[in-house]
Amino acid sequence: MIYFSSEDLDIPIYITQRTSDWIVRVIHDFGKQVGELRFIFCRDEFLYNINVNFLNHNTYTDIITFDTSENPGFITGELFISLDRVRENAINIGQSIENETFRVMIHGVLHLLGYKDKLASDILEMRTQEEKCLSLLP
Question: Which structural domain, as residue segments, surrounds residue 72?
């Protein structure tokens, strides 16, 4: 099951059933099943507080992903997304807010699938996988 909710703002109108279907397809293409995924859209300050209180990071970010999987065959987690950060990033790279939102969402899913983004080689592989997944978006 995939759930969308928000804190102090509206869920973007482009987050629809097709978004859920796309995420399920991506996860299935990686040979996994969907457990329970919760996407929580929020503002910068909300996500900043999570970053400080839970991860001890004193920075703003666009997404924080918490893996709550208990069964290795199922992808389960909570993904907090700052729409303020997404908007700013989209403007900075000349991308639509909608496309950048989808990129950030699938970035979090890829983390749950085991992809990392700390080393340069990991970042390159993450970007490659993001592009592959985005190409599946109906």
Answer: 2-134
CATH number reported for the structural domain that contains residue 48 in this entry: 3.40.390.30
- The pTM of the full predicted model, rounded to 2 decimals, is 0.95
Characterize the bridge pairing of strands 33-42 and 74-82: parallel
Task: Domain count for the chain, please give it.
Answer: 1
**Pairing verdict, β 63-67 and 2-6:** unpaired
Q: Distance between CA 49 and CA 57 in Å, rounded?
A: 9
| Spacing of C-alpha 12 from chain mean position | 14
- Span 32-42, mean pLDDT? 97
Q: How far is CA 28 from the centre of its chain?
A: 17
3-state percent helix, strand, coil for the chain, nearest multiple of 5: 50, 20, 30
Burial (CB count within 10 angstroms: exposed 0-12, middle 13-18, buried 19+), residue 39: buried
What is the token pair recorded at 3? 């759930």
